[in-house]
Amino acid sequence: MGKLFKRGRIWFARVPKRGGGTKRVSTYCTDKRAAEVALAQLEREALDPTVAAANRTTTQEILSDYYLSRARAGRAADSKKFVFQKSKHLVRLLPQYARDIDHARASAYVDARLKEWAVAPVVDEKDVVVREGRQVKRTTVKKELAVLKATLKLAGKNKKWFGDRDAVIPELDDDHEDGERFLTPWELIALASVLPSRRMAIVAYAAATGCDAQAIWRATAADVAPDRSTVQIHGRKRKTRERPAHLPLVEQRALVDWALRHADNREGEGPLFAPWVNMRRDLKLACEKLGIPSCSANDLRRTYGSWLRQAGVAPQLIGASMGHADSRMVERVYGKLPADDVARLLAERVAARDAERALVRVGQTMSSTGTLVGHTPDVSEQFAASGAISGGAATARIRLENAEKRGAQGRNRTADTRIFSPSSDIYEVPDIIGTKRAGVGLRGTLAGSHTPLWSPADIAAYRASEGLPPIPANLTAYAAARSLVGGAT
User: Fold this and answer.
1) Pair type for strands 134-135 and 129-131
2) CB of 271 closer than 8 Å to CB of 220
3) Same domain flag for 68 and 164
4) How many domains does the chain have?
5) Residue 475, domain member (yes or no)
6) Which of 88, 173, 203, 257 has the fewest Cβ atoms nearer than 10 Å?
7) Same domain flag for 106 and 21
8) 3-state DSSP call for residue 26?
9) pLDDT digits over 243-297, tens only?
10) From the centroid of its chain, how far is CA 33?
11) Range of the domain at 26
12) CA 396, 399, 402: angle at the middle one, nearest 5?
């Protein structure tokens, strides 16, 4: 066992050294009890070289090891970027040496980060706040602690840090709230009246394809299938984000076609869209001008999932098309149904179930009486005409059969606003942005037709007759509808 002795005010110790014998080392302590603790550590280091190496390991070194392990595991570029960005704050505020990271230091890190600005406020020369700042959110700090915990786990495996990582990480509540905002077709039409066409092309493309915010700038004309049925998305957050996005709705295909005709690079090779540096700010200002809730690039992505979910597409299929590993993100974030849609779908499912049960009961009765012997007419129409089934159940049954005949494209894709109504194999839009007298369909309208549109008074009267809430006057402006039809400037 080592021996302590004092030289002036400092305590020294003699500890074993490799090859035999002892060596004199300073404990850098003036208090004897502190010197005894330091001596115990010096003895452990002398007996186990691994402990000595771990005590010399820096925080930056173990974070670098973790980053390299992500690259070695083949993680996507955005995943590695995430680790790098979080590591910068950890290196800046945590102790220099990994051995000094404990619960107290991690708690101090949290307190320091929550006092910092994520976006600093802007003041003018008179110290008047021009733009409000935004402090770091708890969600952000919690992600940084997750990186720290994973780093300490790897450092323990590499024998560069000894301790209980669970005891180090402080408890922190998450202040993140999943967004619910998505855009309706009317809002997209309105945005086209206030945004330049090359910017609106970006909005239309993102809403129609559900691509990640960064994937927008990697899009090329070659990514879009000739029939607009699929678009290749070049996401980099994880491997599943490099995927084909399927566009089963005619609205989506029309929007992509419009975006291609108004993109910055609509003819040449390379990226379709030029960078939009102030996208968040410009979208916010455009929404304020129209009097609608603000939206972001992520809300455009949510629009894709919400439209498909309202069209009755299963969440697992939407998740695969959006680049998710399963359906959880769709059910929780990107395809969360509004309350009125939940009520509508529940009513439809119950009506369909009742129709099925009624058909079975009446069918059994007719079979037992010999009515169906030798001839089987269209039972849905027969039962409805004879009154054997209640009107609601018969209507629901016939609606289901018609939907099956039309396929997925025959359903109402935008039930939240009823802007588009199904008719044969296309969506006619006379009720809102077309004219029934001319029989103009959505595909033809968005392709550039200049058929006269209904006036705002016609639109208001239609929505009132259907029991729909009125649209704000600035959304029904003639220019707003005309712009997406082909007159955007």
Assistant:
1) unpaired
2) yes
3) yes
4) 2
5) no
6) 173
7) no
8) strand
9) 899 998 888 888 998 899 999 887 778 899 999 988 999 999 999 988 889 999 9
10) 55
11) 3-34
12) 155
Residue 201: name the closest of 270, 269, 265, 287 by CA: 265
Averaged pLDDT for residues 228-236: 90
Gap between the Cα atoms of 337 and 416, Å rounded? 10
Strands 129-131 and 122-123: antiparallel
Cβ atoms within 10 Å, residue 213? 15
Interatomic CA distance for residues 395 and 128, integer angstroms: 64
Give the torsion sign (CA, 92, 95, 98, 104).
negative
| Confidence (pTM) | 0.57
Total number of residues shown for the chain: 489
Separation CA 1–CA 358 (nearest Å): 90
d(CA 94, CA 354): 63
Q: At what angle do helices 379-386 and 339-369 cross, to 10 degrees?
A: 90
Separation CA 260–CA 255 (nearest Å): 9
- Inter-axis angle of helices 297-310 and 197-209, to 10 degrees? 50
Q: How far apart are CA 454 and CA 444, in angstroms?
A: 16
Mark whether 70 and 158 lie in a shared domain: yes
Which domain CATH number covers 96?
1.10.150
Q: Which two tokens stand for residue 375?
A: 């001839």
Site of tokens 């009317």: 186
CB contact at 8 A, 456 and 473: yes
Buried b (16+ CB within 10 A) or exposed e, 423-456: eeebbbbbbbbbbeeeebbbbbbbeeeeeebbeb
Q: Which of 139, 134, 39, 133 is nearest to 86 (CA)?
A: 139
Per-position DSSP letters for 182-210, written without gaps between them = ---HHHHHHHHHHS-HHHHHHHHHHHHH-
Least confident window among 3-12, 31-40, 368-377:
368-377
